[in-house]
Structure formats: C-alpha cells, structure tokens
Amino acid sequence: MIRLIRPYIAFEEVEAEFRDVFATGMLTRGPYIEAFRAEFARYTGAKHVFPATSATTALWVCMKLLGVGPGDEVVVSDFSHPASGNVVEDVGATPVFADVSLDTYNVGAAELERRITARTKAVIFVDALGNPTGLHDILEVCRRGGIPLVEDAACAVGSSERGIRCGNVADLTCFSFHPRKLVATGEGACRASLPSRRARS
Predict the structure, then answer these.
(1) DSSP 100
(2) How many other β-carbons are positioned within 10 Å of the β-carbon of residue 18?
(3) Residue 93, CA distances (Å) to 54, 61, 76, 89, 130 in order
(4) How far is CA 57 from the centre of its chain?
(5) Alpha-carbon distance 156 to 176, whole Å?
(6) Per-residue pLDDT tens over the stretch 125-181
(7) 121-133: per-residue pLDDT in tens?
(8) C-alpha 17: how far from its chain's center?
(9) Which residues are part of the catalytic machinery?
(10) Residue pLDDT, tens place only, 46-92
(11) 12: part of which helix (H) or strand (E)?
C-alpha cells in the first residue's frame, strides 16, 4: 500500500484539550470551534470563515450562494476529486471540464478562456495536490468576465501564490480537514470568503 498521507497525532500534546472539550459537553459547537474559526480567518487572511461538515458541503453551499442552477455552466478542472463536479450537477447546472497543464496539473488562463460561454455562472479552480499555481491568472480572467471564482483548496491549507495565502485570493475558497489533509480535525471543512466582488448575474 502506498499512502497519500499518514496523520501525525501526538496524543500527549492534545490530551488535556480533549478533556476540556469533552467537559463542555459540546462536541460539534462551542468555544473551541469558534477559536479555530477565528484563528483560521487570521491565518488565511479571509474576511469571513464558516465551518462546514466537509469540503463537498462547502462547495455545494458556494453553488447555492452564487445562485447556480439549471441552465448554468460552471467551469471545473478535469483533474480533481469527483466532488468538484458533482456539486455542480447536484444544483442542476452543467460542469464544463477544462484540461489541466501537465506542468502544474492546474487549469491555465488560456484554457479557461476557451471554456467560458454566455452561460458560465462560476469557475471552480482546483489547487491540485495543494498547488495553487496559476490562481491569480485565473482570477484575472474571471474579473474581466465578471464571473465569480471558487477555489477548491481542499488540499491547500498553508499554500500561497505570489505571497498571498489560499483563502485570500478567490471570491470563495473551500478547505478540507479530512484525516488525509494537512490540518486534520477528524472530519470537517470550512468556507472562506472575501468582501463581495461584482459578479455577472
């Protein structure tokens, strides 16, 4: 077996905090969740951070927030976990898969421009294997077209491009805290957002 990642957890370092959490009787909400949310917002530079049950849930919420639905298209990387495209279909829209560069495994600006149509409602940029290379170029294409940019940063906690951390570039960014991710909470995720930019309705 070749593992993608093996979680590193030193139980003695968190044992006391686990006891404090259990003592509150609040395992899904409470002061520890709020402290984590606030620290994650500070770390990424995101304006707002909202906890979620998974990155898939966070991506789905993004589709709903942007009003994506039947008749709409969302450009998505063709090299990603199926959830990146599934959330588009789940809201009744059509995922338009864009090819990735073999140098970065991310969608490039020229490829994105070829995939945009009058029906494009949003773009989901996937940080392949936690690598956000090309994110700012994609943002520029989206800004020119007035199209919201959603960053699937499930594997990109701590990653940055041009000195700016993921979570502080795209309009909406989704992170995962699944056990195989860099920051693991057992399960869970969050959605980060910036002050609203004008987007094509």
Answers:
(1) P
(2) 10
(3) 21, 14, 12, 5, 26
(4) 10
(5) 9
(6) 999 989 999 999 999 999 999 999 999 998 888 889 999 999 989 999 999 886 666
(7) 999 999 998 999 9
(8) 28
(9) 181
(10) 888 888 888 899 999 999 999 999 999 999 999 988 889 999 999 99
(11) helix 11-24
Residue with tokens 């989901």: 124
Can you tell me the distance from the alpha carbon of 101 to that of 125, in angstroms, rounded to the nearest whole number? 13
Instruction: Count CB neighbours of 49 within 10 A.
Output: 21
> Could you tell me which of 38, 163, 136, 186 has the C-alpha nearest to residue 151?
136
The label of the residue with tokens 């029906």 reads 119
> Is 150 exposed, middle or buried, given 0-12, 13-18 or 19+ CB atoms closer than 10 A?
buried
Tokens of 12: 């003695």
Which element (helix H / strand E) includes 190? strand 189-193
Q: Which pTM value belongs to this model? A: 0.84
Q: Determine the average pLDDT of the residues in 24-33.
A: 76
* Residue 181: half-sphere exposure toward Cβ, Cα within 13 Å: 25
- Angle at which helices 11-24 and 31-44 pack, to 10 degrees? 130
Angle (CA) 77 81 84, round 5°:
55
Phi, psi (degrees; rounded to nearest 5) at 111: -65, -40
Q: How many CB atoms are closer than 10 A to CB 64?
A: 12
